[in-house]
Design brief:
With 505 residues, the protein is α/β, with parallel strands linked by helices. 25% of the residues lie in helices and 27% in strands. The chain has a ten-stranded mixed sheet with strand order 2-1-25-22-21-20-4-23-24-3, with helices on one face. Strand 10, helix 7 (259-275) and strand 11 (281-288) form a beta-alpha-beta unit.
Length: 505
């Protein structure tokens, strides 16, 4: 029987009085009740299956499939191979911008708690395990600012966006799931740290400019003060990037940081972290696959690695690079990995919006799962993080100069701060996080189907369970047999759908 997420998996939200809009395409004759808690732990002898279809008939619908002991020779078999291992998975998640926190804080406490539990809880929800936040403002903040707008690092201070919105929501999330990882990125340094692109001219604009070489040390201290201020609030910053979109001179706040500048700054930043006793990871770059078409910035992180070498204080903290998908192809990740196989890769930002009618599941579900999730994970990405967790029905709050056409993973009606519309980004992240645990290892296969419409990846979780993520981009249902060599089962991957599976070894 087919059902929808708002009946089968969001009962807690409905019980809390959270309305759901018609964007979910409720089909009353096809629904059935389910427990309020999402139990994703497979029992012995069964596999748990989650299904979301682009027609919205099934959205995060949970079912079970009995497993059969023995081997299987069906031509549609995916035979997993745990002896072939690839990268460790850190998690899947969203950006918690000021705008996301603002909308969440305008929900009732009961509705917000229900939503956050459903999203982040390892036992009552989908175990989303990664968040991205800004250091100072982003284009989804209340205003343009940094945490030290008055010259002098002694003037550093968290602002209202952090203290009244982002931090309170972070605390609620961490109370639900203490293991959530947080990565933080600045959109700009304080203006008093900037210089013109010629490294000679005075510069006092929120957009563009470069980091003044003489300010590298004090800017590194700025990062340390931010991490320590968050620690004082009980919030651990797992990782940072030196600059969001370093080749983007626009946006409402930005800093141009070509690879030469980032290499010089990261050497200082890593040493400052080391000297301060911090273990926060540093991911380079944090921008598009195509390097904004700037020829001498191609392979940006590789150039930084080569310039830095490995013989400097804090070198062990410079662990990898981060990518966005607003330009170029995810095949770039394979190229970067081939040149630096000992370095990590994460995918840190993607948006949906009016340009692709991203609030319609039929337009985004399959493409985002195939290209953004599986397309990066199968190219060694350890994490997949999308942009705003929640925006309102006016695509905000947002700032001039930033994205005013973006949708959130979830959109909330600003007339009641209760009615929720779930978009494709919410589903693909939850489908992934629900079965692939932090610390899972991607594993190989010895047999595969020859269906070109089917994209998939398999994993061994820390608790010993297996997991599989599958995406069917075709117009017909696909029946697939999953086998681990000791047991097997058959799953149906509906046309234009995403399916997640987890089963005991």
């Amino acid at each position: 029987m087919k059902t929808t997420f708002i009946i089968s998996a969001c009962t807690a939200l409905l019980l809390a009085g959270c309305a759901v809009d018609s964007g979910f395409d409720i089909h009353p004759k096809e629904t059935k009740s389910a427990d309020t808690a999402v139990n994703l732990k497979p029992a012995t002898g069964e596999a748990v299956i989650l299904t979301t279809t682009a027609d919205s008939v099934n959205t995060l619908y949970r079912g079970t499939i009995p497993t059969i002991t023995g081997t299987n020779m069906a031509p549609t078999t995916i035979q997993i191979d745990p002896s072939t291992t690839y990268q460790t998975i850190d998690g899947f998640g969203f950006a918690l911008t000021y705008s996301s926190a603002y909308n969440l804080m305008h929900m009732s406490q009961a509705q917000r708690t229900a939503f956050l539990k459903r999203t982040f809880s390892p036992t009552e929800g989908y175990d989303v395990s990664y968040l991205r936040i800004s250091i100072g403002c982003s284009d989804f903040s209340s205003r343009v600012y940094t945490l030290c707008d008055t010259e002098g690092i002694e003037n550093f201070a968290l602002q209202s966006d952090e203290t009244d919105y982002v931090i309170p929501v972070l605390k609620e999330i961490l109370a639900i799931n203490p293991n959530v990882k947080i990565i933080a990125s600045p959109w700009t340094c304080p203006r008093w740290m900037k210089i013109g692109e010629d490294l000679k001219t005075a510069y006092n604009s929120w957009t563009g400019g470069r980091l003044r070489p003489a300010r590298r040390s004090v800017y590194a201290q700025y990062f340390v003060k931010f991490i320590q201020a968050m620690q004082a609030e009980g919030i651990n910053i797992y990782a940072v990037t030196p600059q969001n979109e370093p080749l983007n001179k626009g946006n409402c706040a930005s800093l141009y940081m070509p690879w030469e500048d980032e290499a010089a700054f990261v050497r200082v930043l890593a040493k400052t972290f080391h000297d301060s006793g911090l273990t926060t990871k540093i991911y380079l770059y944090d921008h598009n696959y195509d390097y904004s078409g700037i020829t001498d910035q191609t392979d940006y992180p590789i150039k930084v690695y080569n310039r830095l070498g490995n013989d400097f204080d804090g070198a062990d903290l410079v662990v990898g690079s981060a990518y966005h998908d607003y330009g170029g192809s995810n095949t770039e990740l394979s190229d970067i990995y081939s040149q630096a196989p000992k370095k990590e890769i994460i995918f840190s930002e993607s948006s949906i919006g009016t340009w692709n009618k991203g609030n319609l599941l039929a337009n985004t579900l399959v493409q985002e799962m195939r290209d953004m999730v599986l397309g990066t994970v199968n190219r060694m990405s350890r994490a997949v993080i999308v942009w705003n967790l929640m925006l309102d029905d006016k695509r905000g709050p947002n700032l001039d100069g930033g994205c005013q056409t973006c949708y959130g993973a979830v959109d909330i009606n600003s007339s009641d701060y209760s009615t929720l519309h779930y978009n494709g980004h919410y589903y693909v992240i939850c489908q992934s996080a629900a079965v692939v645990e932090p610390g899972a290892v991607r594993i190989g296969v010895t047999r595969d189907t020859d269906n070109s419409d089917l994209t998939h990846a398999e994993f061994l979780n820390p608790d010993g369970t297996y997991a599989s993520l599958l995406c069917n981009a075709g117009s017909t249902d696909v029946k697939v047999t999953l086998s681990d060599g000791q047991k097997y089962f058959q799953a149906t991957v509906p046309a234009y759908s995403v399916v997640s599976l987890k089963w005991q070894r």
